[in-house]
Write a structure and sequence with these properties.
Length: about 190
């Protein structure tokens, strides 16, 4: 190899190195409002990003509240009369609070209020309590929700980007979940 070709090879490696080390897209400034099932950033400013091992340690120590934000499938609007509707089952990390539909980029006021009330219940009003926000792998819903939780003044927010997919891959237990009731609903 000539010195010139070695130098060109070294330059090519330097140029390629940043691309190889980057995981996922860059962190946007605002909430993601479309294409929610796509690769997520490796970071979330102001939040701790958890691996499955980190999330498991927190769960086993019972040192944080786990918040699942996976959306709930809506009841189809045109079901024939007399059709029995059964929600799609959700299995999440045992002990989690499921606050569905709270990870969209834009929330209706009633949904945002539902999220705030759920966070207050989960944290017992303590804005320093560790809150672990998740849904599924490659789902922007949990990223959006964790960013939003930070905007509410919670100071100890963790984002678990692998969610129930990573949890299940690690052969950790899952539990059948029901959404937290909304205002006027019974549990």
């Amino acid at each position: 190899m000539t010195p010139l070709s070695a130098g060109m090879l070294a330059a090519a490696l330097v140029i390629a190195a940043p691309a190889c080390g980057q995981d996922g897209p860059e962190e946007p400034e605002d909430y993601r409002i479309e294409d929610y099932r796509a690769p997520v950033p490796a970071t979330l400013a102001g939040a701790r990003v958890l691996t499955t091992a980190d999330a498991e340690a927190i769960w086993r120590a019972k040192s944080g509240a786990f918040i699942d934000v996976l959306p709930r499938a809506p009841k189809p609007p045109n079901l024939p009369d007399g059709t029995v509707w059964r929600d799609r089952p959700r299995a999440n990390i045992p002990g989690s609070i499921w606050l569905p539909d709270t990870g969209y980029g834009k929330l209706a006021a009633i949904t945002e209020d539902y999220l705030k009330q759920g966070l207050t219940r989960a944290s017992h009003g303590d804005r320093d309590m560790l809150l672990v926000i998740y849904c599924q792998e490659n789902c922007w819903m949990s990223w959006n929700a964790a960013k939003r939780v930070l905007s509410y003044g919670y100071r100890n927010v963790a984002w678990y980007p692998d969610g129930t997919d990573g949890w299940e891959r690690a052969l950790l237990p899952l539990a059948d979940a029901q959404p937290e009731p909304r205002a006027g609903e019974e549990k």
